[in-house]
Structures are given as C-alpha cells and as structure tokens.
Design goal:
Distance between the termini: 37 Å
Strand order of the largest sheet: 3-2-1-7-20
Radius of gyration: 22 Å
Shape: globular
Structural class: alpha/beta
CATH architecture of the largest domain: 3-Layer(bba) Sandwich
Strand content: 25-35%
Helix content: 10-25%
Largest sheet: 5 strands, parallel
Bound molecules: flavin-adenine dinucleotide
C-alpha cells in the first residue's frame, strides 16, 4: 500500500488540479467522496463513471423508507451529488481497464480518460442463484430493482423472498406491509438465528409471523421455472412454491475484478492502508469493495452505510490533500416493523453471548470470542454506538461478568 509520504497533500493537490479526480462507481461512496473532495478543493474537476442507470441514491431506503413512508418518494432518495458538488456523472458507463502507468481508465465503450487521483468505489454485486434470467427474479440491490419489485408486488400478489439475512428480512417486512403475500425461504431453524441469541431471535421472528409472513425455515432454493405469469420454485426438500415474483437477498460479492486486472493487491476486497490508498499512491478505494485496517476490529471489509459515508468522505478529503487517516469504526443498523437495532463488530449467534435486558423489548448483547467482546448488539437501545466502540476498544481488559450495566 502507498506510503503516506508518496501521496503527500501538496503533490495530491497539484496533480489533481491538472488532471482531476475520477471515481469509478456511482454509489453512496462516490457521493460522499465528491463531498469530501469539496471540503478541501472547491474547483478540481470530479468525474464519476457509473454503470447504474440512476444518479447516486441512498440504498438503505430501497428496502425500508420507500415502502413504509408514503410521503418519501424516489426523488427524495436522490443524493443530489451533481448539483451539490459540481461533479460530472456519466451513467450507464462501465470502466473496463486501468492503465496505472499512463494514469488513465478506459470504458467498455472504448473511451480513455486521464486521472490525477483515481477512486475505486465499485461496491458489490448480489450473489445469484440458478434461476432463469427473468424480470420477475430480482437480485435486490439497485433503485431499478426497487422499481421492478414495486411492479411485481401489491394487490395481494405473492412474492417469494430468498434469504433470511438483513436484506431478505427487510424486504419481507416491506412487502407484507404493502398488500403483498410473502413467503421467506431461509436455511436457519429460525429467522435471525445466525445473528441473535434465542430470546432476541424469538421476538424478531414473531413479528413476521404476526404480520402474516410465511416462514420456510431450514430450506434452500434448489431451482425454479417460469410458469404462466408466475414462477414455480423448488426447495431442497423437493416441495414446490408458486409465486408471482422472486426477490433474492443473499449478500454480495465485492467488485474487485477491475483492481485485480490492474495488478492492485486484492484479498477478499481491494487492500488499502489507513489512508485508504492502494499499493499505487494515485489509486484509492473505499466502501463495500475495500479491505481496510480498522483500529479496533482489525483488517476487514464492511458492507454497511455508515462505513460508506464516513470512508467515502475521508477518502475524498485525503485525495484532495488531507493528511488524515481513516480511524472510524463503523456501526450498522437494520429496521423491520417496529423493531430496530444498531451494532458494532461481529454479530454471530455461534459465539458466546452475554445479554443485558433493559426491558422486555430492549437488550444489549455482547458477543465474545475466547472470553473477549468482539461485537455489541443494541436492540431497541439508541445513542450508544460510541459506548459500544469504547467497550470493543477496551475489550481485553473486560471480563464477561462485568459487561452487564456498561451500556
Ligand atoms: C437494499 C439495501 C439496503 C441496505 N440497508 C442498509 C442498512 O439498513 N444499514 C446499513 O448499514 N447498510 C445497508 N445497506 C448497505 C449500504 O447501502 C452499502 O454498504 C453502501 O451503499 C455501499 O456503497 P458503495 O458505494 O461502497 O457500493 P455500491 O452501493 O455497491 O456502489 C458501487 C457502484 O459501482 C458500480 N460499479 C461497479 N463496477 C463498476 C465499473 N467497473 N464501472 C462503473 N461502475 C461500476 C456498481 O454497479 C454500483 O452502482 C443496504 C444495502 C442495500 C442494497
């Protein structure tokens, strides 16, 4: 990774003034990075090359607010990146190649563009299943996927949601609250069983049952075929399920291929140092695609919005000459029905857990590995992520029996 001195502030500003900032990817990191650049550089040119069909928008709203708040529309969800930062955004534009010697990128349309500083904010793409390529099968990630799912749902239609992680569970909750029959198919014995201890998990799952979601636990999708105006899905126990549409939320694969082709170091994500630089001092990376050294939790790749915003803003400032390091340990959150949680570190129900119930609906859960806290779940407990970070930072000095009451 780049030596901080190589990409010093003065050099960065001089170079970028000549050739500009190029950002590959038009997601939340691109938006935050453009704003970060503007904190230090009011005039340098910013070019965002995005293969999406929409201007940058807030992804979390696609599975929550756009379904649950009638006054919130897709245009409210637009981040306003171009208007507020002056960035030029080219949509439907995919970058195919980086020439690090010549400092250029080439798009799949064959256009070659020079850069002073390059940010790889290519995020991730949804994991797919062996299902027909069909508009009614949605690997949910983009605003276009949201629009498609709206078309497929409502009016009592039946949507099968595949995957019980946070995207799958949020989509199931969103759909069932919008006049849609929902079956959720997931491999765990209970919804949320891989994340939460039993008592929390029972509360989580019961909300879905109360709202009429059909749960197909201990199940995986084996395949499916289009039948008439719907789909027939086959589960691994041989049973079948008919649905008008299928929404899949099985996690993402980081889009690292462009970096790999350019000879940059990649290990699960694009490897960056504490200044979010790759092993090329003119190329940076941030967000879902980047593997960075977290000061508390160690090297990791984080697929969450707090990280996208904070890391995006930091990398923008750094590319524009700031000498800062990225020291923020991100939190993440999810909301379904009237439940919500925030968390820092690992949520893994196979770890030892210590529960600190505040009342019947609110609990702090500590996840321990070798007796040391590695994750904190704040379930209906708010304004406590800083405290959770502090506990994880001091984890080695704590014992399981003195955790209760710390938050
Ligand atoms: C439905 C949904 C709900 C979510 N809810 C939450 C939540 O409640 N809480 C939370 O913490 N996080 C949530 N997240 C995660 C959060 O939104 C992401 O972590 C964040 O948006 C990642 O931003 P990014 O810019 O790194 O990547 P992305 O948003 O993936 O953006 C990268 C963009 O780059 C494009 N791209 C890739 N390669 C190229 C190329 N070669 N050329 C041009 N463009 C390219 C991609 O197609 C994509 O448009 C949610 C995500 C989704 C999908």
């Amino acid at each position: 990774m780049a030596d901080a001195d190589t990409a010093s502030a003065d050099t960065a500003v001089a170079e970028t003034a000549a050739a500009g900032y190029v950002i590959v990817g038009g997601g939340m990191v691109a938006d935050a990075a453009a704003r970060g650049i503007r904190e230090r550089d009011a005039t340098g040119s910013i070019l965002i090359l995005s293969d999406d069909v929409d201007q940058p928008y807030t992804r979390p709203a696609l599975s929550k607010k756009l379904w649950t708040d009638d006054s919130f529309t897709t245009s409210d969800n637009d981040l306003g990146t171009a208007a507020e930062t002056g960035a030029e955004i080219r949509l439907r534009t995919s970058v195919d190649r980086i020439d690090r010697t010549g400092r250029t990128v080439t798009t799949t349309d064959g256009e070659t563009i020079g850069y002073g500083r390059l940010l790889l904010a290519t995020g991730g793409r949804p994991k797919t299943l062996d299902l027909p390529d069909d508009d009614r099968v949605i690997y949910f990630r983009t605003a276009a996927d949201y629009r498609n799912l709206r078309e497929l749902s409502g009016s009592g239609k039946h949507v099968a949601v595949i995957g019980g992680g946070y995207i799958g569970s949020e989509l199931a909750a969103a759909l069932v609250q919008n006049d849609t029959a929902v079956t959720i198919v997931f491999p765990d014995p209970d919804l949320g069983a891989s994340l939460f201890p039993e008592r929390v998990d029972a509360k989580f799952e019961s909300r879905f049952v109360e709202h009429g979601v059909t749960l197909r636990a201990n199940s995986r999708l084996r395949g499916g075929t289009a039948k008439g105006d719907g789909f027939e899905l086959v589960l691994d126990d041989g049973s079948t399920l008919r649905a008008d549409g299928v929404a899949v939320g099985l996690g993402i694969e980081p889009n690292t291929e462009l970096a790999e082709k350019a000879g940059l170091a990649v290990d699960d994500g694009i490897l960056v140092d504490a200044r979010l630089a790759t092993d090329d001092p003119f190329v940076y990376s941030a967000g879902d695609v980047a593997s960075y050294p977290d000061p508390i939790l160690g090297r990791r790749r984080v697929e969450h919005v707090d990280n996208a915003k904070e890391q995006g803003a930091a990398v923008g400032r750094i590319m524009a000459g700031s000498d800062e390091k990225y020291t923020h340990t991100p939190m993440y959150y999810s909301d379904v029905f009237d439940l919500g949680y925030e968390a820092v570190g690992r949520l893994d129900a196979s770890l030892e857990t210590v529960e600190d119930w505040k009342d019947d609906d609110s609990v702090v859960v500590y996840y321990l590995e070798g007796g040391v806290p590695v994750g904190v779940l704040l379930w209906n407990v708010w304004d406590s992520t800083d405290k959770a970070r502090q506990i994880l930072a001091e984890a080695r000095a704590l014992t399981p029996d003195n955790l209760v009451g710390l938050i």
